[in-house]
Amino acid sequence: FDPFFTTKPKDQGTGLGLAIVYRIVQAHGGLIDVSSQPGRGTRVQVCLPEVETGRVDEVHAPAQVVHGTERILVVDDEQMIASLLKTLLEACGYGVSTAHSSNEALVLAQQSEQPIDLAIVDYELPGMAGDLCLGELRKKWPRLKAILITGYGMPPADLRAQCIRVVEKPFSTRAITQTVREVLDEPGP
Length: 189
Prior knowledge:
Layout: H1 17-27, E1 31-37, E2 41-47, H2 56-59, E3 71-75, H3 79-91, E4 95-99, H4 102-111, E5 118-122, H5 130-140, E6 145-150, H6 157-160, E7 164-168, H7 173-185
């Protein structure tokens, strides 16, 4: 269930499947058990609590969709994650650019004539850590708002002084879109 654990070759899987299933089951108050035997297969048991009659509509109430028109830069070396965030945020009305490394993000910043309102940056980037990349981006855009995404536990206290919100992977679409809106609505750094 560890995020990003995979036995597949590079670029053939992200290792998010079971981690996401685990978080979904936990969020609904359930339990999940996996047992595996070489040569015999794998058994997955998901146990969810029973929903009281009459509460189904309440449980499945649609989430409030957040929208915006701001410009967002997504920097993640996992192309699938960057692409997913781009698609999700564009569906909410945002203008989104992507980069797959800190160097690519810095080149994009140098070439951009319009300011970026928010950067969503992976903490574990090749070449330069995400918080350092954000520091470099803020040299061009001092009022840049930031979200740092990470698959590893990280104390957000170290980043508060830099006005960086931390979101742990895997995250739900609702969580990331609400966080984006909240950060954009906060007073600037």
